[in-house]
Batch of 3 targets.
Target 1
Amino acid sequence: MNLYKSRIRKATHRLSVCLLISALTIPLTGSRTATIYETVLRDNVLRMITFVGPTTYFENARGPNGFEYFLGRAFARSLGVQLEVTVIEDLNALINALGGPRAHFAGAGLTVTESRQALLHFSQPYLQVRQTLLYRQATPRPRDISDTIGGRLVVVANSSHEELLTLLQKDYPGLRWEALRDTEMMDLVRLVHEGEADYALVDSSAYSIDRGLYPRAQSAFYLTEPEPVAWAFPGHGDDSLVHAANRFLTDYRDSGKLEQLKARFYEHTDEFSVGGSQLFMHRIDERLKQHIPLFKEAAAQWDLDWHLLAAMAYQESHWNPKAKSPTGVRGMMMLTRQTAKSLKIRNRLNAEHSIRGGAEYFAKTRKRIPPDITEPDRTWFALAAYNVGMGHLEDARVLTENAGDDPHLWAHVRRYLPKLAQKKYYRTLKHGFARGNEPVQYVQNIRHFATILQWHSMQQRRQRALLENQLPELGNSLVLPL
């Protein structure tokens, strides 16, 4: 009901503004052109251009996704209009498209540089990144940029990274690099991982996500201090929409929602094991491949993301259908005998039965999470409850609320779960002692594995499309409703 009222208020606000604009412009016909902000409200659409990538925009089983997409959608909703997303493959094409019929602004993880500021307007920053030099594991680690001379160094063409190398070349005349077009930073990480390039220069934010998928690409050092990332707007015309964006970003940051969005995409990448990710990638082909249809079928039945379900199975058993723990839980999803019986699963060692049972049990656990906890936190809470039990999770939420933090946010509750192992806390709680650090690590690992699987699927689709020469035509647009 509150959501409905909110939408009515936004629609009424938009209608009022449009009527006011019309009333003001009737006597001024021929003397004043509507501002960009006014045309967005009048046309009921905000047009954003972006790149496909883990830090920008992509689609999965649940539809459009990506940090830039969710931030742009929140901006559109604050205006009470629809968001229209157009994907551009080339940085030059993206900059040239700004101000045209398809693009009011670019939400594409663009670093603010002096040369770009001479051409474009930028919003206030919403991220900070550092330019990171990558090298391949088991090769000598470069100590400064001069160590890359003689090797194959790759960057995205016309990027801020290429601008930096051009400046550095004055001090290092032998410095050379390859500027690749129609390429994103994830591709550069892959080239280093596979040994096709010796070095790459990428943003720290891109590396933090992609390193799980390509663990042999390692960070050598940062070439810059933190640099601002912001939305880009046309350099010509009025700046009314820039001002609207800044108002939104200020409110979004002050509300805490910006930090929540950052945590959603970057928090689970903090703890990273190269060896663990290499083993994970190996087992995708060795073990997972034959079970993917089972995960997809079970996930579809219970409205789950199959990547998340498969990540849970890896955390539980490393995709071993015959797995057994000292406590007696068994199978791919490590179900207890009691849980299997309640789900009418007769053979826990049968991969199909175990996956189906695990999917049903997790879906029912997620349904039990209080309705005022929304996604994606709802899923993280359900994972924690799947691991430690609903009672202990509720105890941690009580501790969270008593401390003045928000029991509806996983980022808050995860800080209090480890306290369930401390006597001064658990003796005051309904369900007593629990090894509360375990569900925190459990959720962290599954988020990490699920992200790797999502990017692995996306890369496979892209590679198949390239081989079949069936990549979608550049500039396809998607209109997304409120």
Target 2
Amino acid sequence: MTTLADLTMAPDAGAETEQAQRKRLRTVVAASLLGTTIEWYDFFLYATAASLVFNRLFFPDKSSTVGTMLAFATFAVGFLVRPIGGVIFGHIGDRIGRRKTLALTMVIMGVATALMGVLPTTAQIGALAPILLLLLRVLQGFALGGEWAGAVLLAVEHSPEGKRGRFGAVPQIGLALGLALGTGVFALLQVVFDDAQFLAFGWRIAFLLSVVLVGAGIVVRLKVEETPAFQQVHALQQRSSAPLKEVFRGRRTARNSVLGLLSRWGEGAAFNTWGVFAITYATGTLAMNKVSVLLAVTVASLVMAVLLPLSGLLVERHGAQRVYLVGIAAYGGAVFPVFAMFNTGNLVLFGAGLIVVFGVVHALFYGAQGTLYASLYPTEIRYTGLSVVYQFSGIYASGLTPLILTALIAATGGSPWLACGYLVATAVISVVATALIRQRDLYL
């Protein structure tokens, strides 16, 4: 009997003309890249706004530190809800396919983000404002819970033979571009409007822009074909009836799941340190210019986007596990030196440190992550498995990181070194967990 583990993930090149294959792959890349860019733009737009806007408009009666922590708490809620979305959309994706599921997640995300753009503030409707903000953040997290895994599978399961690493890096490029777009738009709006205008209405433009982006993204995603791997699952009638149960029931997949959850700790902490917390730390604690800081994050994100395909090439030569492990170790080694550069208060050194650790080092391991995690599960439960690893780890690895760092720095009177120790610890945990993943347990 043919088993799913034996099925190739690459399409049969002989079944279609070379021209048709190129067209199909271009559509796949566009759908994966554009979709993740828009979804992450929407999601991290909130993170940037939490640092610059929401702490002032939705928690205005609190001290600066408390208001920022409350804004980051609502940021963290999005990560708490993501596992629920991951399980639900993972089940749908493993049952009815990747393509339709991804279109649905984009619609939900776009609606939530657009509604944030017209949300009344605390000064206008009182305590109801932060409650509505929280509910919309919940909706964002729910939608994103099913996005990342589906986008990775859309690319990886369509990848031609020998190019899985490069295709697996495509959705990751979308994350870097989404963050760059979000911080870039905010920087532009703060240049165009003065502080009063920006707080009154300027910040809303960034959220309402999502309507246009989501419309374009849905059109592209509906043009892409279902992945060959899922089509084979459907043809063999071997779709799982309970994907979540199978993720933890099998000894092999259960071990992969635990190690995957731990291996992501460093990556999640790193991204939300450099892409989210650094903005608050630089503009608040270090009193740097907001526009300059946002531009530094934007440039670092663009450098990451450019280098992610190189990470995909390294994956094809050296393997996803090795590339990911080396990258996480490099992140751990860079934490203290980079914060030392930050603490000089020099904008040039701040930008240089951010480009190195976020633009270069993060690109190295983040480009390998999708391919590595996709190999942890067989096709019939792969959407659910990827969602479980990425979204459940997002609670402690990603969502809580800005909150933890803010609390640790406040507890030490503004010193970042205890927070740096925490970040190094996340890197150590991830390195050990990644090293323990066994090649014989992988499905790709």
Target 3
Amino acid sequence: MKLSTGIITAVLLIVGSSGAVYAFGKHNHWGMSPEEKVEFVTDRVTSKLDLDSQQQENFSKLAKTVAQLMLDAKASREQQVNEIGALLQDPSFNQARALELVQQKTQMINENAPLVVNSLAVFLDSLNVEQKQQLQDFIKNHRRHHRHGGGDQS
């Protein structure tokens, strides 16, 4: 696999995992704790990819890492939304403060990216060729089904 293809696959998997954890986090009416949501996602991935116990543990660690990062981001979200609202109400847009808010988010992503990439690498390296192909097919199909306009726009 070319390095660029590997990087794109890794990014898509991170986004997909994050999206799955986010989606389950968004549906609070399920009454699930974050731990239960991680277990649910892990069980689903385990059954779809037919993971062995070590692979399941690797994915569980990845899902827990992503879930914790999302909880951390959610904790500061309300304050950031309030600050953005205040910036929009000011007669003159405070570019320096807006840039500072963006840099804070970027810093959080940069600080946590190695944790996610490491967890992702451990999980991906534990997969066999067939499982990796299933994952690539899923990512390809998932991307196609979630485009606006409903059609394949490749």
